[in-house]
Hints:
Diaminopimelate Epimerase, Chain A, domain 1
Amino acid sequence: MATVNPVEQALQAVAEALKAEARVLITCHVNPDGDAAGSMIALHRALTQLGVDSIMYLASTEPVAVEWRFLAGLAEVIRGGLPDDYQFRTLVAVDCGNAERIGNDDLVRAAPRIINIDHHADNTRFGEINLVVGGASSTAEILFFLLQRMEVNVSPEIAEALYTGILVDSGRFQYASASPSTFRVAADLISRGVDHTAIFRYVYETVPLSKVKLSCRMFDRLTIACGGRLAAAVLEMSDFNETGADGSATEGLVDSLRAIDGVLVAALIYAQSGNQGGGAPLYRISLRSSTERISVQRIAKAKGGGGHVQAAGASITGETPAQIISFLTERVDAALKRAGIKAAGCDRAATGETARGESPDQKL
C-alpha cells in the first residue's frame, strides 16, 4: 500500500479549502517580521487573484520594521480595530506558532473556521485545518508550494513577498533549515522578476541612523559568557528614548551578536513599552544559535516562549536583565556540555557543525 505523505495531504486540503472560501481574513503574529508580512501579502494577492474576498489584518499598531516597508501591500493592512464583518470571515493565520501570537482573542473566538499555515515546529495546531511543516525554512516557502496547488499565477509582486520571507527566515540562506528545496524555490522566484539584490539592500543595507545608535548602546552592554560561546546584551527603554529608535529597530540586532567570533548563542534582551507603566518589568528575549546542536527553542520554551531550533524568543515579566542573563548562562552552559562543545578557541570545528539536530519535522 502506498504511503501517504502528510505534507502533501495538508497542502491539498488547504488548497481546496481556500479555493472554496468566499470571504477570508488573513493575519500573522504581532510585530511581524519579513516572513510573516511577506506571507500575508503573498496569500492575500493570490486569493484576490482567484476571486476570493480577502482582507489583511494586524492586531498590533506598532510601526512595522523599516526593513519590510518596501513590500507592496502593507498599506492595505487593517491595523488594530477589527473590520465590521470579521465574525463572518474564515481566519487564515500565517507564521503563528499559536493562537495567542495573533494578538486578538476576540478574533480567534469568533472565527467560523481557522486555517493555520506555519513552519514553527512547536506550533500548537490550533486550526480546523493545519498546514505545519516544521522543517521548512519559512512560511513563505510553504506558501510557494500551496500556491502551485491552487494554480495561482505567481506575479512579480507575489514573488517578491515570498522571496523576502524566505531570505529573512532562512537567515540569508545560512540556517540549517535552508534545504535544496529552499534554493530551488528562491531561484524560481528570481526567474519571475524578483530583484534579489534590491531586496537584500532594503532588508540589510538600509539602516536608519537611530538604529545604528541603538546598536552602539547594545554593544556597550555586552556580556560574554560560557567560555565565549554566549553573547548577551541589554537594551532599556532609555536607550530607545534617547536614540529615537522604536521597538521595530531591534529587528536583526541579535544577528550582530551571533556574528562575534566564537559565539554560538546570542541573546538580545530588550525592554518593552509596558516597563513605562510602573508595573513589573517586561522584557523580550531574541535568541539565535549558530548550530543545530544547541536548541534555543528549548531555552525559550523554558520561559513560555518558542520558535525554531536556531531562532526563538520569549517575553519575561518580573525579572531583571541580570537574572535573565544568569538563566541564559546556566541553560547555554548545560547545552554546550550535552553537545560536547568546548570553550571558544578550543574547538573551532564546533562553529561549522552541520550534523542534524533535534528537529525531526519533514521538509518540503
